[in-house]
């Protein structure tokens, strides 16, 4: 008889992965973030460059502003009405390693034979950036099997034995 995983002893009601995915999990969200990280900040430019349908883009931007991932900054082209650019907040900048990790995965498994269309480089030395796991004590986790989940301070028991 096999022992059930210990994760079943803990509730997922307050799971931060689930909460994060409620904000970030929609198909177009990281495409919007990619555009803003790459300096494309105006609605029409994002729409034209990414191919996101207008209403979907409007909804994604509203959610990201509402969640304080992006902020709206007004601008007014001469002779036109006021419009907005979308800029990253500190909360938004904190997603950059996530975007790099997604790009790393895509570059490894989904790139065309000639390679990825974009690389993220270190401004100082020019080397490609990669996401990696590092513990709070500064140890690099090379073997992903050395990363193990454990109950955190907000963990709640399910009551299931």
Describe what is shown at a glance.
With 161 residues, the chain is mostly helical. The chain is 35% helix and 7% strand.
Specify Rg, calculated over alpha carbons: 20 Å
What's the average pLDDT?
93
Biggest β-sheet, characterized? 2 strands, antiparallel
**SSE run:** HHHHEEHH
- What is the rounded distance between the termini? 16 Å
Secondary-structure class: mainly alpha
Strand order of the largest sheet: 1-2
Helix proportion of residues, in percent?
25-40%
Uncertain runs: none
Total count of helical runs of at least 4 residues: 6
Shape: globular
Q: Using DSSP, what is the number of strands? A: 2
| Beta-strand proportion | 5-15%
Task: Set down the secondary structure blueprint.
Blueprint: H1 16-24, H2 29-37, H3 43-50, H4 54-66, E1 70-75, E2 83-88, H5 90-93, H6 96-109
Antiparallel strand pairs: 1-2
Give your account of this protein's structure.
The model has no long low-confidence stretch (mean pLDDT 93). This protein has helices spanning 16-24, 29-37, 43-50, 54-66, 90-93, 96-109; strands at residues 70-75, 83-88. It is built from 6 helices and 2 strands. Helices cover 35% and strands 7% of the residues. It has a two-stranded antiparallel ribbon. Strand 1 and strand 2 (83-88) form a beta hairpin. The longest helix is centred in the middle third of the chain and has 14 residues, at 96-109. The protein is mainly α and 161 residues long.
């Amino acid at each position: 008889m096999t022992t059930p995983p210990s994760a079943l002893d803990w509730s997922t009601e307050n799971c931060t992965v689930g909460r994060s995915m409620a904000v970030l999990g929609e198909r177009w969200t990281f495409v919007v973030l990619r555009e803003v990280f790459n300096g494309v900040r105006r609605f029409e430019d994002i729409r034209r460059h990414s191919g996101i349908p207008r209403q979907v883009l409007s909804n994604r931007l509203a959610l990201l502003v509402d969640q304080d991932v992006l902020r709206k900054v007004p601008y007014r082209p001469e002779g036109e009405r006021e419009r907005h650019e979308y800029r990253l907040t500190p909360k938004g900048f904190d997603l950059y390693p996530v975007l790099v990790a997604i790009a790393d995965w895509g570059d490894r498994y989904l790139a065309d034979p000639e390679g990825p269309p974009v690389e993220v480089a270190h401004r100082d030395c020019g080397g490609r950036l990669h996401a990696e796991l590092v513990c709070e004590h500064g140890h690099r986790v090379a073997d992903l099997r050395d990363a193990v989940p454990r109950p955190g301070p907000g963990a709640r028991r399910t009551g299931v034995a």
